[in-house]
Every structure is written in structure tokens, then in C-alpha cells.
From TrEMBL:
Pfam families: Na_Ca_ex. GO terms for cellular component: plasma membrane. GO terms for molecular function: potassium:proton antiporter activity; sodium:proton antiporter activity. It is a multi-pass membrane protein. The chain crosses the membrane at residues 7-29, 35-54, 66-88, 100-121, 133-155, 167-188, 216-235, 255-273, 285-310, 316-338, 345-363. It is found in: Membrane. Residues 37-186, 220-362 form the Sodium/calcium exchanger membrane region domain. The keyword Transcription regulation does not apply. InterPro entries: Alkaline_pH_Ca-Antiporter (IPR052946), NaCa_Exmemb (IPR004837). This is Ca2+:H+ antiporter. Keywords: Membrane, Transmembrane, Transmembrane helix.
Length: 364
């Protein structure tokens, strides 16, 4: 029985992406009914879980902090693909990119961070992480969010939009900030982003499992790419039903951005929760803040380029209630990270802010 369980555990991560591609091809040009939508949703969820597994294998092979970048970039690819798809084929929604990116920031900085801190501190008095690395990540996320999501609401350009030159500057600044952070994380100060023990000492090796072989990592990399293609395609098929469901339930159209962000950040959330349960809080924070950073630093430039072909204006400026939530999130995050140690209370505070974001998205 143990051998059968091991075989199933190994082969489902290969079979599910293949099934995802088959389902994608089968339903690509077909009018979807309720049964088809349900099948696609189940296969999509399984493909996302398979992507998580393969990303973790690759991440374990390359080690921290490089591993955290793998999933962050993969998630951003899915996010950009979905935003562009919905903006070109769905309803006219110039705020979709803003809503999705802001949702990603709130989900990662409050939902994932809060859950990670709560899980990591649940079996001990507190959990430790490197305040230098997490502080640098938080500073970068704050600068990115302010320049791209807050500033458009306060420029001389009418409406919550950038002018052409302003959008170009914001895109270049976003890439510059993200590039500087990646260099800091992977080259200049890699030790700032390594997991730490209870006393704050760096843990340079993953002590709970042997690193996979190069061959296994390359296979997982290939299957990760296949999984991402399947996820993007299946999510595209689900995009119209998602819009219809949001409208039918009576939710604001902006909630579509929340749904997209929740969908694409599912792999990050699962991976961060697993790391937190192993008391590797720094890895969880790397994943959460790295995803928020990639969501802004890579998505905004990509959407800026795509806006050349996209119809209508690109509304990036946040509303007043969203700005309040962002400012509160940044302030609480600073107080959480500056000490390099957190207790369950701080995780709970972030989760309450996440709940406030979801509630205000439903009832603005």
C-alpha cells in the first residue's frame, strides 16, 4: 500500500498537467455549459496544485532566496495573461488591472502574511525572521504601490489615469525597483533572505528533506511550464463564466479582480502555508512580499505596453477607501517586521485587515 501511495503521489503531478492540456484543447472552441464549466474548474484547481508541487521541487533545488522568485514570476505570468485576456474579450473594464494588482497586494500582505505568521507561531511563543530582508521587501512594495496605484489619483491628468509620459516613467521605475530588489535578494545581500532559526541564526540548508537531483528539477521545471500554460488557458475559459457569476450574484464588477487575484495566488498561499508550518517564516514572507512586488513591478509594465493595443484608458489610481486600506496595511506591516519576531496577535491583525478588504470589495 505504501508503494502504491508513493506511486500515486509521484504520478498525479505528471498526469494532472497533461489532463489540463487535454481539457484545454477539448473545450477551447466549444460553447460551455454548466457541466463543462464545472469540469474545467476542477481540472484548473488540480493543475494549480500540480504547479505548486513542481515549483517547490525547483525552488528546493536552487535554494532560497532564488526559489521564492520561481513561483512569484510564474504567478505574475498568469496574472498578466488573465488581465489582458479579460480586457480584450470581456466587458469594458478600465479598472481591471488596478483592481487585480491591488487585490494581489492585499491578499499577499494581509492574507498570506497573516496566515503564515499565525501558523508559524501557533506551536510556539513567537516566530523569527530576518527583519533586514523583509524590511527591504516591504520598502520596495510600498514604493511600487505608491508610484503606480496611489500617484495616478493625484496628478494633473483628469481621472485616475497617467498621461502617456507618466505611464512610461511608472513602468520604467517599476522595473528598476524590481530589478534592484532581485539583485539585492540574490547577489548583494542573499543572507538577508535566508530562513532563520528561533534565535535568529540563518539556516543555510533545508534540514527537513534532501534536495532533488538536477534531472528531477529539470523535469519539474518543464512540467511547471506545461502547468502554467494549462492554468492560463483554463482560466481564460473560466473568465466569462466568472464575470457572469459576479454579475448574477449582484457583486460589483471590481470583484472580478479579487477573484482573479485569489485564483492566481493560490499556489503562493499553499506554498507559504507549508513553509510556515515548518517554522520557515522567512520563506513565507519571501513568497508573500515577493509576489506583491512582482505583481506590481512586472504586471504594471506589461499592462503599460499592452495598453498600446488595448481599447480605452487604463485606470490605475485607487479610490479613497482603497488608499486607506493600503496605508493601514503598510503601517501594520512596518510594526510587524521591524522587530524580526512576531506572535499570533500580529498574524490575527493582518487577517482582520484581509477580511476588511474582502468585505469592502463586496460592499463598497
Amino acid at each position: 500500500m505504501k508503494a502504491i501511495g508513493s506511486w500515486l503521489a509521484r504520478w498525479w503531478t505528471i498526469g494532472v498537467p497533461a489532463i489540463g492540456v487535454v481539457v484545454l484543447v477539448a473545450f477551447w472552441a466549444v460553447e460551455l455549459n454548466g457541466v463543462a464549466v464545472a469540469i474545467i474548474a476542477v481540472v484548473l484547481a488540480g493543475t494549480v496544485l500540480a504547479a505548486v508541487q513542481h515549483a517547490e521541487v525547483v525552488a528546493h533545488r536552487v535554494g532560497e532566496p532564488f526559489g521564492s522568485l520561481v513561483l512569484a514570476v510564474a504567478v505574475t505570468i498568469i496574472e498578466v495573461a488573465l488581465i489582458v485576456t479579460l480586457m480584450t474579450t470581456g466587458k469594458d473594464s478600465p479598472e481591471l488591472a488596478r483592481d487585480t494588482v491591488f487585490s494581489a497586494v492585499m491578499i499577499t500582505m494581509n492574507g498570506i502574511v497573516g496566515l503564515s505568521l499565525l501558523l508559524s507561531a501557533s506551536r510556539r511563543e513567537s516566530t523569527a525572521f530576518n527583519a533586514q530582508g523583509s524590511g527591504a521587501a516591504l520598502a520596495t512594495v510600498t514604493a511600487l504601490a505608491t508610484l503606480t496605484l496611489v500617484l495616478p489619483s493625484f496628478t494633473s491628468t483628469p481621472g485616475p489615469v497617467f498621461s502617456g509620459p507618466q505611464l512610461v516613467f511608472a513602468a520604467i521605475a517599476s522595473l528598476a525597483l524590481y530589478g534592484m530588489f532581485v539583485f539585492t535578494q540574490t547577489v548583494a545581500h542573499r543572507d538577508f533572505f535566508l530562513p532563520v532559526g528561533r534565535k535568529g541564526q540563518p539556516l543555510t540548508e533545508d534540514d527537513h528533506a534532501e534536495a532533488p537531483s538536477k534531472r528531477a528539477a529539470l523535469i519539474s521545471l518543464g512540467l511547471l511550464l506545461v502547468s502554467l500554460v494549462a492554468v492560463v488557458g483554463l482560466a481564460k475559459l473560466e473568465s466569462t463564466p466568472i464575470e457572469r457569476a459576479v454579475t448574477a450574484i449582484g457583486l460589483p464588477q471590481s470583484f472580478v479582480g479579487v477573484v482573479i487575484a485569489l485564483l492566481v495566488l493560490l499556489p503562493e498561499g499553499i506554498a507559504a502555508a507549508k513553509a510556515a508550518s515548518l517554522n520557515r517564516t522567512q520563506t513565507s514572507l519571501n513568497l508573500a512580499l515577493g509576489s506583491a512586488m512582482a505583481s506590481i513591478g512586472l504586471t504594471i509594465p506589461a499592462i503599460a505596453v499592452a495598453s498600446i493595443w488595448l481599447p480605452g484608458a487604463l485606470h490605475l489610481g485607487l479610490g479613497s477607501s482603497q488608499i486607506v486600506l493600503l496605508v493601514l496595511t503598510v503601517l501594520v506591516s512596518i510594526l510587524t517586521i521591524v522587530q524580526g519576531r512576531a506572535v499570533r496577535l500580529q498574524g490575527g491583525i493582518h487577517l482582520v485587515l484581509f477580511a476588511a478588504f474582502i468585505f469592502l470589495s463586496i460592499a463598497p
